[in-house]
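Example record

Each entry pairs one chain with its bound ligand, zinc ion.
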Amino acid sequence: MELDRTDVEILRALQEDSRRSFRDLAHRVGVSVPTISARVATLEQLGILSGYHASIEPERLGQTSLLLVVRCEPPKADPVGETVAAFPEVRWAARVRGAKVIAEAVLPRQEQVDGFLAKVEEIEGVLDYEHHITTRRLKDVPRAMITDRLSTTLICFQCRRVIEGEPIKLKMDGRDHYLCCASCEKLYTEKYQKLMAGAKRDPGAQSNRS
Ligand SMILES: [Zn+2]
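Structure tokens for the complex follow.
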């Protein structure tokens, strides 16, 4: 699915500053506040907008950041990658070609580096690894490149799987909802109606961003 100009502008503005209010976004993008609220909800449900984070500089807190390159036994590279990614010290991890995993970890204190590396070494399927302590962070910017033409695969709002073929598109509360099959449609509609009924009883429970 191609994202339209409104979606692209919302993503651009939020990636620059995720604290922007719906009112500010509406003003920037040139649409109404309810449109922003509906579009943001859809972008979240499509898994495109996956979070709103503060950027905290580990170096300013005296913490140690290191880059890891882990070489794995080829059939074990995926599980090794998942184990590395699950460590709380790891900021991001990626599987790359050649049965390798690359990751960045941040440790509160320099003395913890050896203990962390020992944990990596113990993972089953690790052949060897290199680590590089960061001496200066040169660039660390938001993740996606927001270009004028962006497209995405649709994921089912109920089961969260990629929709193969024609999606079932429902229009509720002035926005689009995508489902993969009739049974997901039924479950989702029931859940959604319950949610809406609850929101009407208790308007304070609705999003306080406006
Ligand atoms: Zn589904």
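The radius of gyration is 22 Å.
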